Amino acid sequence: MNILKPDAAAAVFRDFVKNEIRNEGLKIKVAGVLASPDPASATYSDYTRSACEDVGIDYRVINIGPESVKEVIEEINCDRDIHGIFIYYPIWNDARDAEIRDLMSPKKDVEGLTSYWIRKLYANDRFDGEKNQFKAILPCTPLAIIKILEQTDAYMPYGLPFKGQTITVFNRSEVVGRPLAYMLSNDGARVYSFDINGCVVIDLSSEQKEGIVVTREDALKESDIVITGVPSKNFDRIRAGELKEGAICLNFSSVQNFTPEAQETAGLYIPRVGPMTVAICMRNALQLYRNYHQEKN
After folding, report:
1. Alpha-carbon gap, residue 201 to 182, rounded angstroms
2. Residues 293, 27: Cα–Cα separation, whole Å
3. 73-82, 88-97, 100-109, 282-291: segment of lowest average pLDDT
């Protein structure tokens, strides 16, 4: 089995952030808002703390009840000594979570999930600031997936990085799947985007950006890259016989979405992205600090 794990690539990003902070003597502080009883959220917070300590970012977690989230976020937005915010989901596990995301100041949104940054992503607007002097913040997990794919033969270093590639993504959430599909298409790919309701095509090189219906069978036969993020054991796992020969397969779900035979058959199998997601969060925190919080001479 040809496996690519994210640890080595993530270490490169962490080391970059660590060196920048150390060499410039930066004092970056971020807050984690933990209002969920979900054990996975607490684990993610602990992992974030460890990563922050490793690169030299001051991290503190704020443990509160869901009813206090709005007030606490408003306080952090106004606190000039805090430069970034993590919010650990789910909190309510319904539409209120999306509303909570937009309570954050975009200038402190480490994970890049506020509608301010998502609108820029969908518009392929890659810069921010009065003079477009800053690079826009991108959501951590989609960007982590892009950065991992850049380590593979699918990545084209000149022109649009994924031009000519057909990619299937099983996940169309507003947090990962849909932003990822647009990022891949912005970089030249034709993307088959699946959720529980079926598939749509996202191809920004054509006039019709969404709406074409394609079956799972046809999508997988065409796809050079298959990305899955379905957190359910009821998902019909991708089988070896469904894959295009040599396809790159990446799983970012906590649940395995490929059969063992599919993992063996894949041209390259990427089992997880978590370490890279956290590394990208560290890089986003550094970028936010430099863009909006560091005093300029």
Report:
1. 10
2. 10
3. 88-97
Q: Which domains does the chain have, with CATH numbers?
A: 24-107 (3.40.50.10860), 142-274 (3.40.50.720)
247: pLDDT strictly greater than 80: yes
Query: Quick check: 13 and 44 in contact, CB under 8 A?
Result: no
Handedness of CA 16, 18, 24, 26 (dihedral sign): positive
pLDDT, one tens digit per residue, over 169-220 is 999 999 999 999 999 999 999 999 999 999 999 998 775 555 567 999 999 9
Of 274, 273, 231, 224, the residue nearest 249 (C-alpha): 224
CA distance 149 to 9: 11
Which residue type, as a one-letter code, is found at position 55? V
Instruction: Specify the amino acid at residue 72.
Output: V
Structure tokens at 115: 């509608």
| Positions marked catalytic | 140
Q: First CA to last CA across the chain, in angstroms? A: 53
Alpha carbon of residue 6 to chain centroid: 14
| Over residues 80-94, mean pLDDT | 93
Q: Name the packing angle between helices 140-149 and 177-186 (round to 10°).
A: 50
Beta bridge partners of 199: 194
Beta strand 198-202 pairing with 84-87: unpaired
